[in-house]
Amino acid sequence: MKSLGSIRRSFAPWSDPASKPFISFKNVTKTFGDFVAVDNLSLDIFTREFFALLGASGCGKSTLLRMLAGFEQPSSGEIILDGQSLAGIPPYKRPVNMMFQSYALFPHMTVESNVAFGLKQDGMPKADIAERVDQMLKLVKLDKFAKRKPHQLSGGQRQRVALARSIAKRPKVLLLDEPLGALDKKLREETQFELMDLQQQLGLTFVVVTHDQEEAMTMADRIAVMAHGKVIQVATPPEIYEAPNSRFVADFIGDVNIFDGTVSAVSDGFVRIETEGGLSIKVASQETPAVGGKAGFAVRPEKIRVGNTQPACAPLNAAQGVVWDIGYLGDMTVFHVKLGDGRVVKASSLNAVRLVEDPIGYDQDVWVWFDENAGVVLRD
Amino acid sequence: MSKFGSAIFNRLVIIIPYAWLLVFFLIPFFIVFRISLSETAVAMPPYLPVFNWDDGLSGIFDGIRQFSIANYLWLTEDSLYINAYGSSLWIAGVSTLLTLMIAYPIAYAMAQAPGSIRPTLLMLVILPFWTSFLIRVYAWIAILKPEGLFNQLLLTLGLIDQPLIILNTNWAIYIGIVYSYLPFMVLPIYSALEKMDHSLTEAAQDLGCTPISAFWQVTFRLSMPGVIAGCMLVFIPAVGEFVIPDLLGGSETLMIGKTLWNEFNANRDWPVSSAVATILLLILVVPIMFFQQAQAKADSEGR
């Protein structure tokens, strides 16, 4: 059997101009009174994709999902699913199912009848329903709990019932609203991988809404980072992390140091930026900002190195400072280094060797530096 | 507080409701039950036997030997009582159903209303209690009588050319009961609907239910505890209702509350009226006990 990874690596319909999107948001706007929840948004999602809508609360991601489910109608624009416009189609006629954040399990029904509910509405023969329910409960490993009521289950088990119920009808698209939000950390991590396996097994298109960037990074094929009703960037997790297209995305995903300054030279794929604090940055960049203009340089903490001796690249991409704070996280250590101009740079290093006395201590004078490929230039 | 002290406190707290029931329900009930086994007498009190503690135990046994179920047999012989029970149950049943049909949409609308105006709506439901019950029932006489407001309105609108006879019919009683007991139906249903997770109906629709079918399969089904509580709060007092049939009903209206009142006051027959009251209690309490047992069983089945 091929591993998940090998299937995933070759899966990139969004970069193939010949492939047709399965779900298309076309200039969709949704307003509630004066409030613009979704602002002229266009977005394509492909068959069998695991797509994540990521953003802070109130960014419009849930509204987008609810429009796909049919609980909200777009104020303008159009949503196309599998070549068909969804305008005017009520929720109960859409080939999509949703897993609710609160799970929305029917408290008066057993696990079994919860899973059977959707099939019953379709008028499926009783024997077929029983078979499908059994199959679904085995899939989520809850076949022993079929006769229980939701209130007799743990949070994790309820989450599985909700999942089984939402995939029982074999929808074309499964919508997941903060699917792991109510689980504790350990269970959440396990369930992330289970969801990914399940999606591969069933060959469904998943659209998941989450505010948890780690969750989105782990599970999704592509992530749409949203803010104020707009999509800021749509890309694969590595692209989002390593090549954020804006200050917002760089800042929203993970930890980042952003150095602002004036562009002093652009040549041969390199950009040079001088910051007010006296740091000279020369980095490889596909962006070509105008010389003399303002630009920022974003670099992740794990790509900044800390040491006692002056690096070879100095004076470029290097600065001197004092260790201000040290955070030991187990797998890695985070250093906060205060530079001459008072700004604090975050740098982290992996603790690959056990119990090594770290040569870097509090209040020590150190150098911080980074490679010319360590980060991205952000145009303002 | 010491552990011992808190144990006593806990026990005391549990005893209070039992003591209340004992003093204000069980003891009065046994007094009524004891009178129902006696016979009428022109005396003070107007029944026999009367226990005299001076006679000692043998006197009490003598008294107990005189007890008889003659009054209960009497209730079965005279069709008046059976008819009164039957008609009371019927009127209370119809009124409860009508109240439910009016109260449910009100409660539903209240639960769907924006959170900011819900307290106001709740207040409006409770507001009639601020006026005396008796005055409100009298007001219905003024509304329903042939030359009353309701008939005036219909006549002015040209919908009828003869005043409708509503007052002193069973219809007036239905109207009176529905009006008076509406809040008791609205409040429990509202409280059941209000705490319901809205995403449940969305989930039902997402799984293929039309909004109407989602309502019946999920919303209504989950509001059943409220519906049952409301129906009991209306049905039980309505069966024994005296004021409404007396003021709004006609001479033909037969309700057990009125019969009881007649036996007690007009006929001065305490034993028979006590028997009437005891049977009424049995008619109401026994089905409720069975129902609650069934509910408890259904609740524990899933465990």
From TrEMBL, chain A:
It comes from the Bacteria. One of its GO terms (cellular component) is ATP-binding cassette (ABC) transporter complex. It is an enzyme of class 7 (translocase). Part of the ABC transporter complex PotABCD involved in spermidine/putrescine import. Responsible for energy coupling to the transport system. Belongs to the ABC transporter superfamily. Spermidine/putrescine importer (TC 3.A.1.11.1) family. PANTHER family: PUTRESCINE TRANSPORT ATP-BINDING PROTEIN POTG, SPERMIDINE/PUTRESCINE IMPORT ATP-BINDING PROTEIN POTA. This is Spermidine/putrescine import ATP-binding protein PotA. It comes from Pararhizobium antarcticum. The lineage of its organism: Bacteria, Pseudomonadati, Pseudomonadota, Alphaproteobacteria, Hyphomicrobiales. The gene is potA.
Automatic annotation (TrEMBL), chain B:
It holds the Pfam family BPD_transp_1. The lineage of its organism: Bacteria, Pseudomonadati, Pseudomonadota, Alphaproteobacteria, Hyphomicrobiales. This is Putrescine/spermidine ABC transporter permease. Signal peptide: none annotated. It is found in: Cell membrane. One of its GO terms (biological process) is transmembrane transport. PANTHER family: INNER MEMBRANE ABC TRANSPORTER PERMEASE PROTEIN YDCU-RELATED-RELATED, PUTRESCINE TRANSPORT SYSTEM PERMEASE PROTEIN POTH. Residues 85-291 form the ABC transmembrane type-1 domain. Keywords: Cell membrane, Membrane, Transmembrane, Transmembrane helix, Transport. Its main location: membrane. Belongs to the binding-protein-dependent transport system permease family. CysTW subfamily. The keyword Transport applies. The chain crosses the membrane at residues 12-37, 89-109, 121-143, 171-190, 222-244, 270-291. One of its GO terms (cellular component) is plasma membrane.
